Amino acid sequence: xxxxxxxxxxxxxxxxxxxxxxxxxxxxxxVKPMVTTVGAFLQDVQRxxxxxxxxxxxxxxxxxxxxxxxxxVLLMNDFKLVVNNTAYSVSPPAKEMLSxxxxxxxxxxxxxxxRLFVALHLEDHQIRKERELLQKLxxxxxxxxxxxxxxxxxxxxxxxxxxxxxxxxxxLMSTQGGALAWLTWWVYxxxxxxxxxxxxxxxSAMAFYAYFVLTKQDYIYPDAKDRQFLHYFYQKSKKQxxxxxxxxxxxxxxxxxxxxxRRLRQPLHLRLPIQEINDKD
Length: 281
Known about the structure:
Layout: E1 6-10, E2 13-20, E3 25-30, H1 38-48, E4 55-59, H2 71-74, E5 79-83, E6 86-90, H3 100-187, H4 190-215, H5 221-239, H6 244-265, H7 274-280
Antiparallel strand pairs: 1-2, 2-3, 4-5, 5-6
């Protein structure tokens, strides 16, 4: 009969002892059940003995155990280890269950180790993250600088054109008032000019209503000025190939990076885990 495969626990870790077929000597393999996989264990066995061409693990019902299975899962039940053409029936010993007090102590130790790790590496992480954000801010500002200059020129021209349009409107209204006064008192009489002024007023009301139909907004002078300004702005942006969408995207990224940097420099505003927040309280 083939030599048996034994499993013993030493210092809390399983030690698998088996006979290497080429050298016919016993060899121990210490595995970390929560980290080591079946595939990693079989690779270690094959590296130890180059004469092993086949190494597989099967369950007691004959189904093959995946290489990605953790050894912790494999050691819960009996299994078969096949080395070359030799099959070994393996029965892992029952591992002693930790008491509730020991389990609680282990959880406390894990929590303490986690806190120590965070405390030792949080400052380095913040410095590295701050450096990345500063580099991102510099890059975004470099991209935005020519766009900001182009936008300022376009806004100045659009604002000047909008102002000229307002002054032209005032001049036309003044000319209209003067013409009506001249026709009323020097050329014709009020009886003749009254219907004319009525239809001019009615036409103005129709023009304001048409503005509402087209824009879905009331004709309010500041809103109308802003609307005309935007019209000129986008018109000139298209002529000068100013990408408004790209500019807005860069501005959003810049604001997001600045907010992240502000929160990073103020630890009290960081979104800490609930457990960390409770501890601070």
